Amino acid sequence: MKNLLRLFVAPLLALPVAAAAQTTTTTNPASKSTTTTPAPASTSPAGMQPQTEVTEDLDPATGKVIRRTTRTIYVPMGTPAPSTASKTTAPTTSSDVATSTATDAQVSTFLRKKTAIATLTAPALLAAYQQFIERVRTDRHSWKASDWTAAAAILSSLNGRYDQLRSSLSLDDKLTIRSQQAEFQTLRTARQLSDQVSDKL
C-alpha cells in the first residue's frame, strides 16, 4: 500500500518542478530576443565602417540653412574622416547659393528695358521682379544651364536692391516679391532634376 501511495505522490510532487521548468524556458527566450535585437543595428558589415554624412540646403535669397539632412552610411575601412566626405556634397549647395550679381547692362538686356539697379524705387523694383519672372516663365523651356546661371545673377542683383528698400515696401509687396523669388527657385530646381533624370535614361 505504501508503495502504491509513493507512485501517486511522486508525480504530484514533480508537477510544480516541471511547471517551474516550463516557465523558465518560456521567459528565457524572451530575454534573449531583447538582448539580440539591438545587436544587428549596432554592427556594421564586414570590412566597413560607419560614417555620418551631413547635407545642408541653403536659401539662395538669405543664405541661411533651410534643411539639414543627416544620414549614416557605411564605407570601406580606412576611409578618411567624415569631414572630407561632407566636403563632397557641400559644393553642390554652395555653388547654387554663391551667385554673382549682374551688371546693369546684363539686367537691362534680360528685362529688355534700360535698368539701373541702384536707382530703382520701390514701385520700380516691384515691376522689375514682375518682368523678371515673366521672362523666366516664357523662355525657360529653351534655356541651358548657362541661361539659368545668368538669370540667377539677375535675381541676385534684384535681391540686393530689395534688401536696401525692404523697409519702404508694404507687406503685400514683400509677399509678392518673396513668391516670385520662390517661383524662380522652384522652376530652376525642377529643370535641374529633369536634366539629371534625362541624363540617366
- Number of helical elements: 7
Order of helices and strands: HHEEHHHHH
How many domains make up the 3D coordinates? 2
Q: Trace the largest sheet across and list its strands.
A: 1-2
Helical content band: 55-70%
Computed CA radius of gyration, to the nearest angstrom: 34 Å
Question: Could you list the spans in which at least 5 consecutive residues all have pLDDT below 50?
Answer: 17-41, 82-98
Q: What does the overall shape look like?
A: elongated
The overall pLDDT, averaged over residues, is: 73
Strand tally: 2
**Beta-strand level of the residues, as a percent range?**
5-15%
* N-C termini distance: 92 Å
What do these coordinates show?
The chain has seven helices and two strands. Residues 17-41 and 82-98 have low confidence and may be disordered. The chain folds into two domains: 43-94, no CATH class; 104-200. With 201 residues, it is mainly alpha-helical. Helices cover 66% and strands 11% of the residues. The chain has helices at residues 2-36, 38-42, 82-97, 104-111, 122-139, 145-165, 171-200; strands spanning 48-58, 65-76.
